[in-house]
Design a protein that fits this description.
The structure is a homodimer. Chain A is built from ten helices and twelve strands. Chain A is of the alpha+beta class. In chain A, strands 1, 2, 3, 4, 5, 6 and 12 form a seven-stranded mixed beta sheet that branches. In chain A, strands 9-10-7-11 form a four-stranded antiparallel beta sheet.
């Protein structure tokens, strides 16, 4: 595409992963946004959109997650440069699988590449987070970091974000089912309690720890026992029609774990094989049908790399 | 010692390890209890004690942590057998380094061995926990499990305890400083809040996760950043004279991390070398001197094996 333009494919992501509320996420191969970044001669950051749900996303630079990420990046360098950014949405906005994170990452990653990669991926992260805040109000990096780095990512927010790339067990398959149903991200956050019991907090600590040890050991049984959420799921499960029976059906059909992806309405599950994933996926789709909802199924491996540069 | 008697050395342990309140612990080589178990012809569990603080420990079987562990074990089999159990205390009672856990583990481990090892170490754990409850009121297994299995242990309590043995980075050295000062374990527990903010709970999740990833990666810097406790230390630090400046001195002299061992009053620290550990240990001892307290220093490698059978 020449030196003045670049096309980036950035993956959808699952945050929380049941036991890792606000500190764990992983990237999947499907679906993805495709972000085209082109240098211009003016100093504007010009945003345009096409694809799924494009009409719901603001194009004003400061209100657009990709625009804000690029502004944050350029402000950091004190540079005044112009870019046209076109986002082809493959990820449904408001689906709970990191739609805005993917756009922010694609744009910041593309601009960084066009400028000769002055920032490392880790350094880019904060600008992607600054972008994501625009659309979600808060940003924890648990979508942005896996979209940017690939794989399973642990984020510790302690002052500046501390990003730890975790191993991905062989054969691990992700299932996403997105129902035709809207959840307001802000509502999903407001429903959470300000405090939790110390007992629950200790259990959740044990769960995320067990899950991470499970990733290192490729121990699917340990991962499975650990995929229990005491922080968000007990409160958010009521926001998704049919959630309890869908969760049960997924587990009974052999899922390693199953939960709400991000703040929903997508439901994710993990499986140890593609064949098993197909069975689990169909059960979840069936579960949504029972409550009168159509849904879309994505079965995919874990995307373990940074965003792809397309020709 | 013949087939009717066995002598077991069980190590002291550090629980909590800053970021792993009630779910993380490790075993150290020094100090240790030595428990001698001898079969008898009657059906009594007879407890006797010698060594450090022996006069403070009850010898009534049901009130003694080792006696209760053995009773729990024998009840499980419905067996009526008699044993003499002599505990030579090398670990100060009430020191915060798993004194009662070591005695419970030594006795249960010894009885199991004398009976031909009907239980695996993992199966023995619950009986050791039942023993430890007698002395501490609650038992989380975070002392008992590392005393029994060695190394760093993650415990998830979710119904039955789920024990995960974690890797031990090479060259990791433990520092323990036990001041001549009493803390009541029950007081140390009562001072804790019933609830924590969701934000703190998320941070603590990230911290223990980072620490565990650090153990797997032998990444001392990540371990160091992660060794922050938001659950117990903010409340318990006031119980230990000079704690804040001791903690600061330990960190400034190069500790990977430093915190309260169990519910105190012992302070533990981790170091990347024995030489550095000596410096850190002396700083902590000096810190206690400044507040008028004598203390005892133990520098030791991580004990990575089950209890030792002595000749």
């Amino acid at each position: 595409m020449g030196n003045d333009s670049i096309k980036i494919r950035t993956p959808a992501t699952v945050s929380n992963v049941s036991c890792g509320f606000d500190c764990l996420g992983y990237a999947i191969s499907e679906p993805a946004d495709i972000v085209t970044v082109t240098k211009t001669d003016n100093q504007d950051i010009d945003i345009s959109l096409s694809g799924i749900g494009a009409d719901k996303i603001p194009t004003t630079t400061k209100k657009n997650t990709a625009g804000k990420a690029v502004l944050s990046f350029l402000d950091f360098f004190g540079e005044k440069k112009g870019f046209k950014i076109h986002i082809e949405k493959g990820i449904h906005p408001g689906s709970g699988i990191g739609s805005s994170a993917a756009s922010a990452v694609g744009a910041a990653f593309g601009v960084n590449k066009l400028l000769g990669s002055p920032l490392s991926l880790e350094e880019l992260l904060v600008h992607c987070i600054n972008g994501e805040i625009v659309s979600s109000g808060t940003a924890h990096g648990d979508n942005v970091a896996p979209a940017l780095l690939g794989g399973f990512i642990l984020i510790r927010i302690n002052g500046s974000p501390d990003i730890i790339k975790l191993p991905v067990p062989k054969n691990l398959i992700s299932i996403i089912v997105l129902p035709e149903y809207q959840i307001n991200t802000q509502d999903a956050r407001n429903i959470l309690p300000k405090n939790v019991s110390l007992k629950s907090a200790i259990k959740q600590s044990g769960n995320i720890s067990g899950f991470i040890a499970g990733l290192y050991e490729s121990n699917f049984e340990l991962m499975s026992r650990s995929m229990v959420d005491l922080f968000a799921e007990p409160f958010r499960r009521g926001l998704i029609p049919g959630y309890d029976s869908i969760h049960q059906a997924a587990m009974e059909s052999g899922a390693i774990g199953c939960g709400i992806s991000g703040s929903g309405p997508s439901i994710f599950a993990l499986s140890y094989s593609k064949e098993r994933a197909e069975i689990i996926g169909k059960e979840i789709v069936k579960g949504f049908q029972k409550v009168g909802l159509n849904s879309k199924l994505f079965i995919s491996s874990i995307h373990t790399h940074p965003p792809e540069i397309l020709d």
